[in-house]
Amino acid sequence: MRLAIFADVHGKLLLPFKLVDLYQQQTGKKIDFILQCGDMGAYPDLHNLDKATLKHARHNRDELGFHDHFVKEDKTIRQWLDQLNIDMICVRGNHEDHDFLDKLEQEHARQPRFPIDIYQRIFVCRSGIKQELRTPDEVIRLVGIGRIGDAKGRTDKRFIQEYEQREIKKLLKTNDAIDVLITHDKDDSSERGYGMRAIREVLDNVPVRYHFYGHTGEPFRQEQDLNGITRSVKVSELEYGSTGILPEGSMLILEYSKEELQLEVVSQRFTNQLTQYNWRD
Question: Do you know which Pfam families this protein is assigned to (predicted)?
Fold first, then answer.
C-alpha cells in the first residue's frame, strides 16, 4: 500500500490529485490513498470565508478551489476523478467552514470519516477515532486529529472541541498501536508556546509509528519524537513560493509492505513539473 501525503492545500484540492496522477504515470507505482493534514480551505459558501482566506483570495482564486470545483458537479472533473479512483482523507485545519463540516459530521456520526464534496472523493476524519485503510493485501491503522490547540482556553471552532477531547481520552485508554497519525497542529512540547496538548498525550501514551502534521509554517523536517518510538514529520505546505514552485517536502509517499513502513520525500525535480503557472492546465 502506498499513501501520498500533503498538508495545507488552502483550496488547491485538485493539485494533490494531479500530482498523484503524474506520479503514477511516471513511476508506475500505484497510490492507494491520499492523506492531507488540514487547511483544506473547505468553504462551499463564499459568505463564510474567514478573514485570512478572504484576504488571500482577493489575490489568488486558488484559495476558493473547494467552492469552484467540488461543490457543483463538473462532468470533466468527475470523469477524471473516477478514472483516478483515489480518495483523499483529511483532517480539519483552522481555515475551514466548520459549521458546514459540523453538519456533515453529525449526519455521519457512526462513521470514522465523512465525505464533504459532490464527487465523494474528499473525506474528513472525526478526531480521535481509529479507522483502517485497506487494500486486498494490507491494512494501515489510522487516526486523525483536526483543528488547532490553544493554551489560552479559547473555544471557537478553530480550536479542538470538547467532544473531540472525549474521543481522544477514549483512544488513550486503549493503548492500541497506530501506524499513522495525521494532525493539523503539532504537539505542545515546543517552548514557543503553541501546539495541541491532546496530540502530545497521544504520542506519550499510544504507540504511533508515523506522525504527519502541517500548520506551523516551518520547513519540512523529519525526526524522532521525544517518545523514542514515533517518526515525526512536518509536511511542507502545498504553497507556491515567489519562484512559482513547490517547496521540498510538500509531497511524501509512505509505502507499507509486510508490516514495514518506508517514507519517500518526492524530489522537487518531480514536483517542479507542476508550477504555479501550469498546474491548472
Answer: Metallophos
Domain topology for 2-271? Purple Acid Phosphatase; chain A, domain 2 (3.60.21)
* Beta-bridge partner residues of 123: 89, 115
pLDDT digit string, tens, across residues 3-51: 999 999 999 999 999 999 999 999 999 999 999 999 999 999 999 999 9
Q: Where is 133: in which H helix or E strand?
A: strand 131-134
Q: Which long-range contacts (CB under 8 A, 24 or more apart) does 113-118 make?
A: 113/89, 113/144, 116/42, 116/70, 117/13, 117/66, 117/70, 117/71, 118/70, 118/71, 118/72, 118/73
pTM to 2 decimal places: 0.96
Strands 260-265 and 131-134: unpaired
Reported as half-sphere exposure (CB side, CA atoms, 13 A), residue 248 has a value of 5
- Could you tell me the strand order of the sheet in which 208-213 lies? 131-134, 139-145, 178-183, 208-213, 231-234, 221-224
Tell me how far apart the alpha carbons of residues 96 and 107 are, in angstroms, rounded to a whole number.
Answer: 18
